[in-house]
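Friendly challenge for the regulars: who can give me the structure tokens for this chain first? No prize, just bragging rights.
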Amino acid sequence: MSDNKQLSVIPDEVVINKIYFIRNEKIMLDSDLAELYGVETKRLNEQVKRNIDRFPEDFMFQLTEPEFENLKSQIATSSWGGRRTLPYAFSEHGVLMLSSVLNSDLAIKVNIQIMRVYTKVRNMLSTHKDLLLKFEEFETKLADQNDKIIAIFEYLKQFEEAKQQELEQRERPKIGYKTGKE
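First reply, four minutes later:
Bragging rights claimed.
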């Protein structure tokens, strides 16, 4: 198993942090993949365009402006500057296909690692699926209770306002010394 140690080019956490969820799919961006493969984004995209038949829409797609803006706001980073075109997103199959168009030793090692990380993520999600289902069920119950909680707060607010008005309407006893003239 020492081969696995040699293949681990980058920490898994780095790869995991470059996997995003867009259009109900786990994807990686061209710029992140290029960084991991040690090539320029422009060069990666050139190789893809030369082999475009290998990348159907479910393997690779270009983000829309709203998707890209949403992604930038989620990541809250300023390292996106300088892009003139919208990024390409690669599904797991698209990342796998990249190994056939990028043939450097580093690209092959990184690609194997990315595939292992995708497998880990998939296993983690399936292992915790029961927890996710419970969480969704809990979230649904909370949503149902939301209207009731709002009604309770409204009632308390009305109760406080009525109590305040009652206090203001009561005649307060005078405070001070009696001089005998009263």
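The chain has two domains: 2-127, 129-170. Residues 129 and 157 are 41 Å apart (CA to CA). Your move, everyone else.
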